[in-house]
Write a structure and sequence with these properties.
Structural class: alpha+beta
Shape: globular
Helix content: 25-40%
Strand content: 15-25%
């Protein structure tokens, strides 16, 4: 068994929580190798299509429709399909919270503690470009990683913020249809996977995090529209961070009610609070997690529909931008295009123009930048397209050495069969966009974003 360098108090609490026999099974789970998972991007490829590619040795995660286990030696982060945004690397149990929040296209969704983006990418994919996803993380550095992952996935209807929940509440008010709170926690469920979580646990235990969790959940509930759903989750076992926090919000806010989650094979019911779900590493092929689904009672039967969409005023489209957009067949509502400091953005539906004064890392899809005599499209714009949505494209098989050279930022030379390419060209691998290049005849000037380039 791997040595668990935690206090006897924790081990005794787990024994009390699980009972003698289950506690033995829990300890035995530390003898097993950690599990590796990836989740496919429904915006770009179905799970079945991805599995048929045969790139990795995959086994389905039973309770996640687009989740797979992979072997550690597969190294999927060093594959061009990762750079095409076809999948996200995520521990299997961590895929569960976003899958249980009932998001549908057109929703206004908030992921309150979103970095590095595993749950936000799934929520954004399920919106299918409709509605709005606000992904927030209080840490600005973590929010930058969050932004990269959302753009890599080709999610266009995003706003990425880095704010305290209280400031978001004061700005948005009751705005969101669905909210995910994957709360900071003591991380007991991740001890087997990450030894650093044990060190953090010794510094700050469950009682420390329970105070933070209650405050975050309180602010989140105030941002939920009547009739909306909120999914609370942690990756810890402690009752005081899980059921006790849910019990507290139910008593604190009479509008909130607990909606029972249906269990699946291997999942356990909540402890002392019916309707919650727990995942234990000795019962599933994954780590530890807790989930509870809340709904805000709809006291306002005749609630007025949001009218932000009607308030948006059109921005004049410069000729250079218009010329580039003529090459794009992807549907774009030009009334949602904004230009700020020469950067061109495509705002989501229902973008709250009133939501000013926030630390935004991104408002909508960054289309590109207006230069002195031209428009340069962005990496994010390329990732949000399909190959057929741009007038000129090249697609190479993932085994083609030019794919790696392109991802490294090198100039690419075309072969005789490909002929000459002039002007903007969308570069793809197996038909999935990677980024832009600019053809000068028989060579391509590489426009792959430097901050995303292949390392090593």
């Amino acid at each position: 068994m791997k040595e668990i360098k935690v206090s006897e108090e924790f081990l005794c609490r787990m024994k009390d929580l699980l009972g003698e026999e289950e506690y033995k099974a829990y300890l035995k789970s530390f003898e097993e190798e950690r599990l590796y998972g990836l989740r496919t991007n429904d915006l770009k490829i179905t799970p079945e299509e991805f599995a048929e590619k045969g790139i990795f040795s995959l086994k389905p995660v039973p309770w996640i429709k687009n989740g797979f286990y992979y072997e550690g030696e597969d190294r999927p982060a060093k594959n061009s399909c990762y750079y095409a945004g076809l999948y996200y690397l995520q521990e299997p149990s961590a895929m569960t919270p976003a899958s249980l929040l009932p998001v549908v296209p057109g929703d206004k969704v908030l992921d309150l503690c979103a970095a590095p983006g595993g749950k936000s990418t799934e929520l954004g994919a399920r919106l299918k470009g409709k509605g709005i996803l606000v992904s927030n993380d209080i840490s600005n550095s973590r929010a930058k990683a969050l932004l990269k992952n959302l753009e890599l996935w080709g999610i266009e209807n995003i706003c990425v913020t880095s704010e305290k929940p209280e400031k978001l509440k004061n700005t948005f008010g009751e705005f969101f249809d669905k909210i995910l709170v994957d709360a900071p926690c003591s991380g007991e469920g991740m001890f087997r996977k990450d030894a650093d979580m044990v060190k953090s646990y010794e510094e700050h235990g469950p009682e420390y995090y329970a105070v933070i969790q209650k405050e975050i959940l309180k602010q989140a509930a105030d941002m939920l529209v009547p009739g909306g759903f909120l999914l609370y989750s942690t990756c810890t076992f402690s009752v005081c961070e899980n059921e006790d926090v849910i019990d507290w919000i139910l008593n604190e806010n009479e509008q909130m009610e607990l909606i029972p989650l249906l269990p699946f094979e291997g999942a356990s019911r909540g402890i002392g609070l019916s309707g919650c779900l727990r995942l234990f590493p000795h019962k599933i092929k994954g780590e530890g997690h807790f989930m509870a689904l809340l709904k805000k009672r709809d006291f306002h039967i005749n609630r007025a529909e949001d009218s932000e969409k009607e308030r948006i005023k059109s921005t004049p489209i410069p000729s250079d931008l218009s010329s580039f957009l003529s090459l794009v067949s992807k549907p774009l509502d030009q009334s949602r295009i904004r230009i700020k400091e020469n950067c061109v953005y495509y705002l989501p539906e229902f973008f709250p123009e009133k939501a000013k004064g926030l630390r935004y890392l991104r408002t909508g899809l960054l289309l590109g930048e207006m230069k002195k005599d031209r428009f340069d499209p962005s990496q994010a714009f390329a990732m949000a397209m399909r190959q057929e949505e741009f007038q000129q494209s090249l697609s190479w098989k993932r085994q083609d050495e030019r794919v790696l050279r392109y991802l490294k930022g090198e100039t690419i030379f075309l072969n005789d069969e490909e002929g000459q390419v002039k002007g903007w060209c969308l570069i793809c691998v197996d038909g999935f966009p990677l980024g832009f290049a600019k053809g000068t005849g028989t060579s391509l000037k590489n426009k792959y974003y430097p901050g995303w380039r292949w390392q090593g």
